[in-house]
Amino acid sequence: MKPDKCMSVKEEIKNIIAANKHNAPKKIFGDLVFCDSVKKDVLTSLISGHNILLTGPTGSGKTQLAIQIGTLLSARQGVKNCPLHCYAEDKGCPWCEQLELKEMEKIEASQRVVRIQGNSEITPEDIIGDLDPVAAINYGIRSSRAFVPGKALRSNHGLLVLDFIDKMPERAMNALIQAIEGDCVYTSHFDDEIPLDSLIIGTAGSNALEMMPIHMSDHFDVIKIDYIKDVEEEKNTIISQAVFKDKCDLNGVIDNAIKIIRGTRSHAEIKRGVSTRGGIKFFELLNASPKVDKKDVATNKDIREAAVSALPHRLELEDHIASVKTAEEVLQEILDDVLKVGEKAHFALSKESIMSIAKEIATRTEIKRPLKYGFYDILLKRIQRFPDSELSKLHTQIRDKLDEKENKEELTEELLEQVEDARKLKARMIAHKKKLDMKALDLTIDTLSDIGMLEKSRDGYLMGQKGISCLLEMLFPHVVGKVRVHGYGKHAIGKKSQFGTGRIVGTRKYHLGDSYKNVSYKDTLREAIRNRRKKVTRDDIRINKKDIRSQLFIVLSIDLSGTMSELDKLWYAKETSGAVALSSLSYKDKVGVVSFSNLADDVVEITQNPYKIMSGVVDLDLHENAFTNIGYGIRKAKEMLLRYRKSSAARHMIVISDGDATAPDPSPDNFAIREAKKAAGKGITISTVCINQISANPDLMQNIARIGKGRMYTIEKSENLTSAVLEDVSQARVNM
User: Fold this and answer.
1) CB 272 within 8 A of CB 318
2) C-alpha–C-alpha distance, residues 47 and 41, integer Å
3) What is the distance between the alpha carbons of residues 657 and 569, in angstroms, rounded to a whole number?
4) pTM beyond cutoff 0.85
5) Is the N or the C terminus of the chain less surrounded, counting Cβ atoms within 10 Å?
6) 723: closest CA among 479, 556, 474, 498?
7) Is residue 314 within 8 Å of 275, Cβ to Cβ?
8) SS3 for 267-332, per residue?
C-alpha cells in the first residue's frame, strides 16, 4: 500500500495493518514467538495510533519486535537534504524555509527508522539537537545550518525506537516527553515550533515502571513480554534460530539442555535467568562441542562444558547471594540437579517448605537450641509437641516412608505368633516406634544438611548457607520500593543523589579551585558564542555538575536483656539487621551490629555483605536475668564506627531497646547520656527505637536521639520495628 503524502505515520501504519490483515502480523512478528494476548495488544495499540512501551526480561525479543514494526513502512519521496525528511507540503520546517529546499529524493524505508540506545550518558541534546559551534561562527547562531537536529527530530515521518528507555537520565527523559506530548518541538535555537510526526516504540526491563516517572510512562501503552511459556515452543524456537554449520545428534540431550535454561529462571538465588537468546548461543556451543572431540553425538558431558562457557555470565544473582556465591557455583547446582549427578536419597522439598523451615529454625528457641547443642532426644520431643510446624511435617513424612518399608519386615504375623505376652509386644512396638522416630530425625537432619539448610558445628547444627539465604529472601518485601532513583538536594560541587554514580546532571559557572577535568568544553564554547566573543574568557567556562554522595556506615546496637524475648522482639531485631544490610546494597553503604545487656559485644564488624550480617545475628541468644546497659551499647557502637575514622563515610548509630537503663549503678541514665555526648562529639549521629512497654523509658531514648541529632521512634508492636529502622536509615541518607 502506497501512503498518502499528507498522512501521518500513525495513520499510515494503521491503514497498512487494515489493508493487510494476514500479512502485516506476519511481517511484525516474523519468527518471534509471543502469546496471542501480546500480539493482540501490539496490533491494537498500533491501530489506535498509540506509542508503545515493551517491558520484559533481557532476550525476550523486545528490541527485535520494535525494529520489525518498522518494516511496515515503505520508501517514499521527501525533500532532499532536509534532516527531518519533510514532505513537499510540510510547513514550518526551519531547514526547508531557510535553505529554500525544494528538490525531492527517495527516502528508503530503513531511513525512516531511527534508534536510540538508552544509557546514563544520553543528554537532551542527543534527543532534540544541539548547536554546532563551528557552523555557528560561520553562518550565525540563528541559522538552521548551525543547529544539528537530534534523533527525535530525525525520526520525523517515521519510527523512533527507544531501546533501554529506563536507563536514560531524567533530564533526557524530560526532553523526550516534550517530543512525545505534541506534534511539535520547541528549542531555544529557533523562535518557532518545529513540526514532528513520529511513532515511538520504547523497550525497557521488567521493573521499568518502578523506575520511570509516571508522567513519562503515561504517554505509552505498556505491553509486558515474557519468556516463552511453552517448553516445546521454546525448544523449537531455539533449535530453528541456532546456526548449525555441521549438525550433530542432539536428540539425547535436548530436553536436559532446555531444563537447564528454564531452571535458571525459576531458581530462588537467581534474579535474572538465561534468555531465549542466551539459549540459542548455548545450543550452538553444545552442537560444536562434540565436533572438537570428533564425535557426532552430544552427551551430558558436552552439556556441562557448553554450559560453563555459555551461561554463567548471562545470569544475574540476587544481591544477597552475589556476596556469598558465584554464578558458576549456582549453575553447577542446577547442572547437578538436572543431570542427576551425586543425587542423594533425601526428600524433595518445595521452596515454600524450605522458607518455612528456615524461619522456624531461626525464630523458635525450642527447636534452635537442642539442634545447636546436639540434644536430639529433646529436639524429637519438641518436634512431636508441635505437629503443625513444617519441620514436624517433614519428620512425619520421612517416618511414614520408613515405617512403610521397615514395619513390614519387623512386625510380621510370624513375630506376633512368637510373642505370647501382650505386654512384651506393646513394649516392642514402643521401642520400635522410638527407634523409627530417631532414625527419621537423623534423615530429616541429613536432608536439611544436604540442601544447605543446616551446617555441622562442634556440638550440633547451626543455620547453613541455604537457610541464611532463605531468611534474606524473605526480607525483600521490606526493602523493595524503598530505593529512590533520582538525585536530590544540594552539594558542594553539584547535585546529590542516593546512588552517587558520578553522572553529569547539569552545568554551572566556573569557581576558583575547580578542576580542569570537570570543564564542559561544549557548553563553554556555546556560552562564548552566545556572548559573541572570539576568545573564551573565565566568565564563559562551564563546569559539569555531578551527582555525588558520601558513603554511610550504620551500626545497630541491639538490646539482649531478658525482656526482649516477649512477643518475638529479638527475632524482629535480627530481621531488622538483615533488612538494613539488604537496603544498603544499592547505596554501597556498610552495616555493623553490636549487642548489649550487662556489658556489650561486637556481633558483626562493619561490612557490605548482608549474608555476614544475617549469619552473625541469627544465633544471638538472650541474656536471661541480665541488666540493660544502654550506655555501654552506645560506647561499643561508637568504638566500632571510630575504627573507620579515616574513611570519608558518614557514621550513624541506631539503638534498639525495650527497657529502661538499669546498669551500671548508681546512675545508668547519666552514663548513657554521657556516652551519647561522646559519640556525638566524634561526629556520629544517633537514633533510637523504643519498643514500648511498662518498663521502657521513652524520655531517656528521646534525650539520646536529641543529643545524637537523630530521630526517636516509639513502636507499639514488635513487627513494626523493621519499618521504623528502615525509615530512619532512609532519613539518615537524606541528611548526610
Assistant:
1) no
2) 10
3) 9
4) no
5) N
6) 479
7) yes
8) CCCEEECCCHHHHHHHHHHHHHHHHHCCCCECCHHHHHHHHHHHCHHHCEECHHHHCCCCHHHHHH
**pLDDT band at residue 482 using 50, 70 and 90 as cut-offs:** very low
Instruction: Determine if the peptide bond prior to 195 is cis (ω within 30°).
Output: no
Burial (CB < 10 A; 0-12, 13-18, 19+), residue 720, is middle
In order of start, what are the domains of the chain with their CATH numbers? 9-224 (3.40.50.300), 231-339 (1.10.8.80), 351-463 (no CATH), 501-548 (no CATH), 552-734 (3.40.50.410)
CA 92 to chain centre: 46
Residue-wise pLDDT for 237-296, tens only, equals 888 888 887 788 888 889 999 999 998 988 878 888 898 888 999 999 998 888 888 888
Q: Is 138 exposed, middle or buried (0-12, 13-18, 19+ CB in 10 A)?
A: exposed
Q: Are 447 and 347 a contacting pair, CB within 8 Å?
A: yes
Written as one letter, the residue type at 620 is L
Q: What is the mean pLDDT of residues 437-466?
A: 87
Helix axes 62-69, 36-48, angle to 10 degrees: 40
CA pseudo-torsion sign 29, 34, 37, 38: negative
| Alpha-carbon span 14 to 4, nearest angstrom | 13
**Model confidence over 601-618: pLDDT tens digits?**
999 999 988 889 998 998
Cell numbers placing 491: 552539594
All three cell numbers of 314: 548471562
**CB-based contact 432:444 (threshold 8 Å):** no
